[in-house]
Write a structure and sequence with these properties.
By secondary structure, this protein is mainly α. 82% of the residues lie in helices and 0% in strands.
Length: 117
């Protein structure tokens, strides 16, 4: 019985890092996203918006690392700038590919978490 408990403990210690790797976004990144999401969905009350927007960032974190998310999110925001300021981001194929993937994951996360668009 004692060996069984030790084996279970060791299994838990081995699998624990993979569980924490799945959601490696920092608290600041998560809070910033949730606040932005709540701001862009003013028809929801605070409780509903905070829960649903937290769900969305959790879904996004399953697909992207924090670095990928920050790079793609920055590219997306900057590509919306007018004229030459956003041209650098609009014309780069890698940024466009990342933005397309982000939009797809974002839409799926909104649907999964029942956030109206």
């Amino acid at each position: 019985m004692k060996k069984m408990g030790i084996a279970l403990l060791m299994t838990g210690l081995v699998t624990l890092p993979s569980v924490t790797m799945a959601n490696d976004f920092s608290t600041v990144t998560r809070v910033q996203y949730v606040l932005d999401c709540m701001d862009s969905n003013p028809k929801m009350n605070v409780y509903e918006a905070s829960n649903k927007c937290s769900c969305v960032i959790d879904e996004i974190a399953k697909v992207f690392t924090q670095r990928e998310f920050e790079d793609i999110n920055t590219g997306y925001q900057m590509s919306n700038l007018p004229a030459d300021r956003g041209g650098v981001f609009r014309d780069d194929d890698r940024v466009g590919t990342g933005i397309k993937a982000f939009k797809q994951v974002h839409a799926e996360a909104y649907d999964s978490c029942r956030v109206r668009r």
